[in-house]
Amino acid sequence: MMSKLSNVWVFSDIASRLPEVIAGGVQLGEKVSAFVIGSEDEIAKAYSLGATHVYYLGEKDTSKIIEDYAETMAHAISNGDTNTLMLLGATKRGKALAAKLGVQLNAGVINDASEVTVADGVTAKHMVYGGLAIGEEKIVSPIALITIGNGVFEAAQADNSKTGEAVSVSFIEPKAAIKCIERRAKQGESVDLGKAKRVIAIGSGIGKQENLQMVADLGAALGAELGCSRPIAETEKWMERERYIGVSGVMLKPELYLALGISGQIQHMVGALGSQTILAVNKDKNAPIFQYADYGIVGDLNKVVPALISAFKG
Fold this sequence. Notes:
The protein is of the alpha/beta class. It has two domains: 5-168, Rossmann fold (3-Layer(aba) Sandwich); 193-313, Rossmann fold, CATH 3.40.50.1220. The protein has eight helices and 15 strands. It has helices spanning 18-28, 40-49, 70-78, 92-105, 212-222, 230-235, 266-269, 301-313, and strands spanning 5-11, 29-36, 53-56, 84-89, 108-113, 115-117, 122-128, 133-139, 143-148, 165-168, 198-202, 225-228, 256-260, 277-282, 295-298. It has a seven-stranded parallel beta sheet with strand order 5-9-4-1-2-3-10, sandwiched between helices. Strand 6 and strand 7 (122-128) form a beta hairpin. Helix 3 (70-78) crosses helix 4 (92-105) and helix 5 runs parallel beside helix 8 (301-313). 40% of the residues are buried.
């Protein structure tokens, strides 16, 4: 039987990732202490997923960002078990929070872990060299901080009969807080591609922005979310950053991944290799993506995509 830590701390800034983060805590710790920000319903949800203790940080406050809670969390963690681990979702906010906690707790941090074990100290595996290899590292500090990617732990199933102990934690003001002057709605819909069962991704082979509508129609026919390669999001800015798939973007584990006009460089493919089935369409028969694809179509997107739409709608 795998050994466990006496306590594992958990936190997720995105509600949809909480079941996986808590599942990791249950697997690795005898106790699971969850930090919760929000309504009392969120406390009950944490219990239902397997948290044994909840450290309640109060209702959501629009004047605060997640990193503002670092001092508060660090104080609670430092007053607990000496040898402990904190798991966070590998989101932008999760990684920023882990970095601040690492400084305040003098703790080792590993980001985007694909596997975590505590049999002989806290060890994690994660991609290195732009996705060309998997590195395994051991954190030797008494407190370990790890952000985990999507699908590392199987999501916990809610059991509303479960309960636990709650502790209300007083907020500790950051020594150097970032002051929120104004909030503006972000253009485009927010999306969590890591949870999508079907994903269609576009690359530079799409040619022009007007062709996005054609791909959106295919997505509607397939019931798929849309994603993209890095140039589409960061150079062309045709799609929002949250839809960029790759080593420094989103890591996927869908049932189907359909890549349209994507060459298939390793920096992109590491974000898609967890897919159950990969289908690629590219006019270049020598494109690297065909080495990863389960099925491939060599052809012009302007002909192939309408044909696929027709076939799926039929």
